Amino acid sequence: MKALLNFFVDLCLLRSVPQQLPASTILFALSLIANVGIGLLLAGKAHSSMSVAFLESLLDSAMLLAFLYGALLMKKSMQRFVQAGTALMGSMALLSLVAIPLLSLSATSGEEGSGSETALLLLFILIAWSMVVIGHIFRHVLNTSLARGVGLGVVYTLFSIMVFRSLFPVG
Hints:
This protein is mostly helical. It has one domain. It has 6 helices and no strands. The chain has helices at 2-12, 25-44, 50-75, 81-106, 116-142, 146-167. The longest helix has 27 residues, at 116-142.
């Protein structure tokens, strides 16, 4: 378990590649469950209803996997789906775990000296870094450049934001 966690940390630091993961449907399922579960905690910070938070978390994972599926289908590389999906779900779960305390800190806005501005900046950096991590994974899965991979990460993130803002308005 520790080796797997270390792998995902290294993946998020761009020191590992998705091909180093075994193509295991069990590992894929576990990483998907982890991503949905941690996403539920993260979405729960923004929504009072846990059913809405669960739906948001589930949709987030499904959209990312559908984006991956479409990219692999166009590249005719479907055999990489399990490894790449595991890499995406595991890395996004880890980054979401880091986001939870930042989101909590940023919610204390208005309190002088609360550090909410710093937390918001760190949250923004984390979102930007998640696009780089997605790009790193897509680079290796699609045999493309890091710039194109990050471009796909940016496109996915912007699309995701638009979908979530329309389906789950905040405030």
